[in-house]
Structure formats: structure tokens, C-alpha cells
Design brief:
Chain lengths: 268, 297
């Protein structure tokens, strides 16, 4: 029984890893090799030659940079805005607060895909199609982040806030010196999940950008793939280069990512 | 006193303002704009003319649209139950293996962080006939005779299996993590007591673990249904929506109508139908969650 369980576990792990291992191994083959059986993909000779070629001849590195830049800006702005709003909703008294809460809550019910057509028209009217602003600003509003961060701010004791106020500290200082440090794990999880979401976001960049200098990876990859259909080496190099940054990030921040998912599941 | 109240309002507004500006401009306003667009003949270039309920009438008569709704539904029916069973199975594997738990967790989760484009092309290359990974593997272990090929991507049923399998591989990680953390929240004394009473492993699983996972299963089911209904890119890349549009999803149809057939007005109309369907599903989720809480009280 114990052995059966171990074997099943091992098989599951292998099945999950095989597509990635295959991707990596094929990416370091030479182009034009004859593949007769499955084994030929995994045997030497290996070479990184195609990597150099892809980096030189395509805009892939440009797109890696675009994806990275857009994701970083979106992540910081989204979480800062959501934290400020969540703080106001949690700790600040003001009129029409209940109404405001419902307005934000309503956003949870609006799926981005369902407003993407009028969003395109809105971005067009604002003349931000085919710009970095167009890639960034429409993606910043995250009601779910506001609600989750609010629920964490709710857990910060009011005594702490009052003690800062007695010392003459303003609201901004309470926000920066009390709220954010005390909820750091939640904020960190929020940052990393927003980053991954943005890095992998497809539909909006796909609709809003037609200039290939502004492409992000998810939309750039398909345009490259169409050129190569017979040999897998170049496609796999493209896949690998596109995936490495996010895999490295995952290895560094795995703990925060896992925590963030558990949190969003509880709220979800 | 009046003054301080006003000051409190202004201060709160300042903190809410950055979020509210992007939220109103890029979520709420498009929501309203979409209503207007759905009553117009509206192209990528400009608004053409007011057409009343024409777009809505067309939608109800448009067989291609309802077919695409059905295809997305097939995808939901195919992936949701399998997703839950797989996520529980993987969580059991990781949970019981205390020594290698972290390793298993990383292995099962890592596909989830990949870009949908990367995943789709991996899927395309895995299921390709003649040169794909899966058929080569089947040839190697002689499950498939030399010279014979399985055409995964050009037969509708096989295409669904291919797209479903690659989606499971890609997205099961999130649900796996949710199940794993739920399993770890189950106190050890419960298992201890069951063991002392002589319960077998399978009895423990069916009568303790699974019922205690019930709340998270409900949540995951609803979130999964909504997420699967919005499928687009992996089908579009792997099958192109084919064969003969038999796997075309509703988002793909909306996109093609808007951006390939240059009919944003009609695309907006169909978006509203999609929104309505997702809203009903969300309401169902809300209702189920509330009922769950009511039972607990």
C-alpha cells in the first residue's frame, strides 16, 4: 500500500514535469536534427546556438522587457491604490461609506472579459491605444484587492492608531508607519499575485496594442510561432526565454505565492 | 464639529480617489458605454447609426453565438469535475508525504505560473500528429502501432480532451494549493481518534477528510465554473476553434465579431449576454455560500 502510494505520487510528479523538461531539452538541440523516436529529443548533441539566434533576430527580449516593465508598474500602482482605498474603507469615518462599499463590491461581479469591447472604445476615445499608458491604466482597478486588504486592515487594533494620533501623527503617517508594516505578509502576497497576473495577462494587450514594439510576451509569442511550424527548436527557445523570468521569481517567492492563494481562496 | 466632519470626508476621499478614478473610468464607465454601443451599428472606426434592439434580435437568432455558448459550457462540464478530483488527489499526495511535501508542492504548482501563450503552444506541440510528444511516446511504448497516428486536434472529441488536459495541467495548481491548505487546517486529533477507532485509510478519507473539505469544494466549484466559461486563448491556439468551429468559445466569437468582422456594436451586445450568464453564476455562488453560513448557525 505504501509502495503503491509512492509510485502513484512519483508518476504524478513526472507527468507534471515532463512538458517542462521536454521544453528545456528541445530548446538546447540543434535545428534540423532528425527526430525518429521520442528518445532522439533527449539525447545530445546539445547547443545554445539557437538562443543567440532568437535573441538577435527577433524582438523577444524587447517583449520580455515590456512585460516586465508593464507588470512592475501595474503591480505597484494597483496595490498602492488598493491599500489606500482599503485603509479608508477600514479605518476612516466618512459619510456614504456603506454606499461606497457597495460600489466597490459591485466591481467583484463585473468580469473584465464582459466589458472588454466598450473598454477598447473608451481607450480609443482617450487616445491611449498603442501606448504604455493604454497597457497600464485600464488594468489598475482591482476591487478584490481593496476588499482583501480592507479585511486585513480591520485586524489592526485601533489603540495603535490612537496612540500615533496622540503623538501628533497624521493619517498618512498612520498608513505608512502602522498599517502597511503590520499587514506586510498580506501586502507582499498581493504584490506577487498581481505581478504574475499582469505578466500573464493576454486579452487586453492583444486588443489594445498593434505596434509590435509595444507587445508583451503573451501576445508576442503567437506572432513568432506562426513562422516556424516544422522544427520545434526555435519555438521551445522562445517558450523557455519567456518562462525563465517568472519561474525564477516563483522559486524566490514561492512561500508568499502559496500564502496569497490560500488567502484569496478564503475570501473568494 | 461640522467642520471636522467635512474634513474627515475630504481626507477619506483623498485616500479613495486614485482607486476611484481608474475604477470609474475603466470599469464602471465602459459598463455603461457598452449599453449604448449595443444599440448601435458601431465599427472599429466609428459609430454608424442607431439600430434599436436589432443587435439583440440578431443575437437570439444567431446560431453561431449559441453554439459558442454551448462550446464554453462543454468546456466547463469537462474541466470542472476533473479539476476538483485531480486537485484533491494531488493535495493528498503532497499532504501525506511530509518529507517531500515542499518538492511536490512546487512540482504541481509550477505550471500555473506559466503564460497562457507558452502553455498553449506546449499543448499544440504535445498533441501534434507525426511530430508531437504524445504520439511519439505512444509509438515508443508501442501503445500505438508504427505508421498509425492519433489526430488529437482535428477530431472534435479528441480536441476537447487535448484542450481539457492541457488546461488541467496548467491551472490545477491554484486549486491544489487551496485544498492542501484546507487539509492542513484539519486538526490531527481527529485523525488520531479515527485511527484509535480502527478506521482504515479510505474510511478516514471518505468520512472525515472529504466532508471537512466541503466548504472549499463549493467555493472552488463556483470559481472554476466562472473561470472555465471565460476560456479563450488555449483553445484558439491549439485548435483554432476548429474543426469547423466545433470548439470555438464564446469569447473567441465575441472577439472575431468585434475585431475581425468589424462589428463592435454586436460584440458589445453579446458581451452583455456573457455578463448576464456570469452574473447568474456569481449570484448562485453567493446564494450557496450564504446558505452554507445559515446552516452553520
Amino acid at each position: 500500500m505504501k509502495w503503491l502510494y509512492r509510485i502513484v505520487s512519483l508518476i504524478a510528479a513526472v507527468v507534471f514535469l515532463v512538458p517542462l523538461v521536454w521544453m528545456l531539452v528541445v530548446s538546447i538541440k540543434q535545428e534540423g536534427m532528425k527526430i525518429v523516436t521520442l528518445v532522439d529529443w533527449f539525447t545530445p548533441p546539445y547547443s545554445f546556438g539557437v538562443y543567440g539566434q532568437v535573441i538577435r533576430e527577433t524582438k523577444l527580449m524587447n517583449w520580455v522587457w515590456n512585460s516586465f516593465f508593464v507588470a512592475v508598474v501595474i503591480t505597484i500602482l494597483t496595490v498602492v491604490m488598493a491599500a489606500m482605498a482599503g485603509f479608508a474603507m477600514s479605518k476612516m469615518p466618512f459619510r456614504y461609506k456603506t454606499f461606497m462599499f457597495f460600489v466597490i463590491l459591485a466591481g467583484l461581479l463585473i468580469p473584465g472579459e464582459a466589458v472588454i469591447i466598450p473598454l477598447y472604445q473608451t481607450a480609443k476615445d482617450l487616445h491611449i491605444l498603442n501606448t504604455y499608458s493604454g497597457l497600464i491604466f485600464p488594468m489598475l482597478a482591482s476591487p478584490i484587492a481593496v476588499i482583501i486588504l480592507k479585511s486585513f486592515f480591520d485586524g489592526v487594533p485601533n489603540d495603535l492608531i490612537e496612540s500615533v494620533q496622540i503623538d501628533g501623527g497624521g493619517t498618512w503617517r498612520i498608513f505608512m508607519n502602522i498599517m502597511l508594516p503590520l499587514t506586510r505578509p498580506a501586502v507582499a502576497s498581493m504584490l506577487i499575485l498581481t505581478f504574475i497576473g499582469s505578466w500573464n495577462n493576454f486579452l487586453w494587450p492583444f486588443l489594445s496594442v498593434t505596434d509590435d514594439k509595444l507587445f508583451t510576451l503573451p501576445m508576442g509569442i503567437p506572432t513568432l510561432m506562426n513562422q516556424y511550424s516544422t522544427d520545434y527548436v526555435k519555438p521551445m527557445v522562445i517558450n523557455t526565454i519567456s518562462s525563465l523570468p517568472i519561474i525564477i521569481l516563483f522559486l524566490i517567492f514561492e512561500r508568499q505565492i502559496v500564502k496569497g492563494i490560500s488567502l484569496s481562496g478564503i475570501k473568494g | 464639529m461640522r467642520m471636522t466632519k467635512l474634513r474627515a470626508d475630504v481626507q477619506a476621499l483623498l485616500f479613495l480617489l486614485p482607486f476611484l478614478v481608474v475604477y470609474l473610468l475603466f470599469t464602471i464607465y465602459p459598463m455603461i458605454k457598452g449599453v449604448q454601443m449595443s444599440f448601435y451599428k458601431w465599427t472599429l472606426i466609428k459609430k454608424i447609426k442607431y439600430v434599436g434592439w436589432q443587435n439583440y434580435e440578431n443575437m437570439f437568432k444567431d446560431n453561431d453565438f449559441w453554439a459558442s455558448i454551448w462550446h464554453s459550457t462543454i468546456f466547463v462540464l469537462l474541466t470542472t469535475p476533473t479539476m476538483i478530483v485531480l486537485a484533491i488527489a494531488l493535495a493528498l499526495i503532497a499532504n501525506r508525504n511530509s518529507r517531500l511535501q515542499k518538492l511536490y508542492r512546487s512540482v504541481f504548482f509550477v505550471p500555473s505560473i506559466l503564460s497562457v501563450a507558452v502553455v498553449s503552444f506546449l499543448g499544440l506541440f504535445i498533441f501534434q500528429p507525426y511530430t508531437g510528444f504524445l504520439n511519439s511516446l505512444l509509438h515508443l511504448i508501442q501503445a500505438l502501432p508504427q505508421g498509425k497516428e492519433i489526430f488529437w486536434l482535428t477530431e472534435t472529441n479528441l480536441a476537447w480532451i487535448a484542450v481539457g488536459a492541457i488546461t488541467l495541467w496548467w491551472t490545477v495548481g491554484f486549486n491544489f494549493i487551496l485544498y492542501l491548505s484546507a487539509m492542513q487546517d484539519i486538526p490531527d486529533d481527529i485523525y488520531e481518534a479515527a485511527r484509535l477507532d480502527g478506521a482504515t485509510d479510505s474510511q478516514t478519507f471518505w468520512q472525515i477528510t472529504l466532508p471537512l473539505l466541503n466548504p472549499i469544494t463549493k467555493t472552488i466549484t463556483m470559481l472554476q465554473i466562472i473561470a472555465s466559461f471565460k476560456v479563450f486563448l488555449q483553445i484558439y491556439i491549439i485548435t483554432g476553434g476548429g474543426p469547423l468551429d466545433q470548439t470555438r468559445s464564446v469569447i473567441q466569437y465575441i472577439w472575431q465579431t468585434g475585431f475581425r468582422k468589424n462589428n463592435l456594436g454586436y460584440a458589445a451586445t453579446m458581451s452583455y449576454m456573457l455578463f448576464f450568464i456570469l452574473l447568474v453564476l456569481s449570484a448562485l455562488q453567493y446564494w450557496m455560500n450564504n446558505r452554507k453560513e445559515a446552516q452553520l448557525r
